[in-house]
Specification:
Helices cover 50% and strands 0% of the residues. With 74 residues, it is mainly α.
């Protein structure tokens, strides 16, 4: 009798694993709205310009490596 219960439980588990998306209570996943090609191109261009601008900005030295005071010779 115990073997029958265990076999039934294993059969139910394997069925759930194989057909998990076909359950009636599974959430419905809608396809995402497509973003227009022009919007993606503008976003890509803005990203590239931002990277270029960040690369051109002068980098500040960390406070631990900054020189304090006036240089010895000018």
């Amino acid at each position: 009798m115990l073997d029958l219960a265990i076999a039934a439980d294993l059969a139910v588990r394997s069925t759930r694993r194989l057909a998990g998306s076909a359950r009636p209570d599974a959430p419905v996943v809608l396809p995402r709205d497509r973003v227009s090609r022009g919007t993606r191109a503008r976003a890509r261009l803005a990203s590239r310009l931002h990277r270029i601008a960040a690369a051109l900005e002068p980098r500040r030295q960390p406070a631990s490596t900054r020189r304090v005071g006036t240089p010895a010779c000018r």
